[in-house]
Amino acid sequence: MKSRIIDKLYNRVNERGVVCVGLDTSLDYIPSFIKEGKSNKDAIVEFNRAIIDATFDVAACFKVQIAYYEALGIEGLEAYRDTLAYLREKGEIIIADIKRGDIAATATMYAKAHFEGDFEADFITLSPYMGMDSIEPYIPYIEGGDKGIFSLVRTSNKGAKDIEYIKTPAGRNVYDIVGEKVLNMGKEYMGECGYTPMGGVIGCTHIEEGAKIRETLKEMFFLIPGYGAQGGKAEDVAMYLNNGNGGVVNSSRGILLAYKNNGASEKDFVKCAREEVIRMRDEIRSACNR
């Protein structure tokens, strides 16, 4: 079956731009007037809802990093659940950044946990470095047309060099082989937009091979971290897009902490977050049109 969810994401990028708002919400990001007199859960949910309301019409999607919520125990997971529920209520596209990477029955349970029920998302992130059988249990959900994945391929951290850049005897990088395998697994479920719902996490901080990766994985939709706080620039990001589409660019701290970065009042956190999304969107659009 053709993928509806990748077409939906592709169209959102056309309509709203490439920005993916990262809700990697730490308690110390939240203005004190929100936290005052509230539980951690209620403060996080109120902050997240305000960010969502301020940015949804200028962002393609939202990425929620589960670790920030798991770190707070049950209360944090309730905030995670309620944040996802609010995004679904508003019709927004959710990427759950969970980076699971296990096999067989365990992976089947991860798929059920994050494609159904309280923690349901549209896309989830996976690590394929145990092998392609760590991805296979998610395929039944992808076959339905309404779910997708972003698999780690070539990441933005310095440690990517430790494994992802290892050369095979044929002279190819490990990440080249991983990307090719994930792409080929997804081709059966291609969307009308020409991309598969089995996307790749491709960091923008290693720009020297950017053009080659985009050409080699031309039918793979990218989740692109590394912009802003990690050093990636708009012109770096543009290398990984196709005419301004074919990927979404995540920013978390840059958006959530825009009010602090700008020296603004806590009361202006919503205004500053929206302005940062628009600034980022327009900067990347401009770089793509050069």
Automatic annotation (TrEMBL):
The family database entries (SMART domains) matched by this protein are listed as: OMPdecase
Is the Protein transport keyword given for this protein? no
Provide the reaction this enzyme catalyses.
Answer: orotidine 5'-phosphate + H(+) = UMP + CO2
Could you tell me the EC number(s) of this protein? 4.1.1.23
What is the uppermost EC class here? lyase
What pathway, per the record? Pyrimidine metabolism; UMP biosynthesis via de novo pathway; UMP from orotate: step 2/2
Under Gene3D superfamilies, the record lists: Aldolase class I
Ordered alphabetically, the record's keywords are:
Decarboxylase, Lyase, Pyrimidine biosynthesis
Q: Does the keyword Transmembrane apply?
A: no
According to the entry, every stretch annotated as the Orotidine 5'-phosphate decarboxylase domain falls at 18-268
Residue positions of the active site? K99
* Molecular function per GO: orotidine-5'-phosphate decarboxylase activity
The record's comment on protein family reads: Belongs to the OMP decarboxylase family. Type 2 subfamily.
The name this protein goes by in its record? Orotidine 5'-phosphate decarboxylase
Q: Species lineage, top-down?
A: Bacteria, Bacillati, Bacillota, Clostridia, Eubacteriales
List the gene name. pyrF
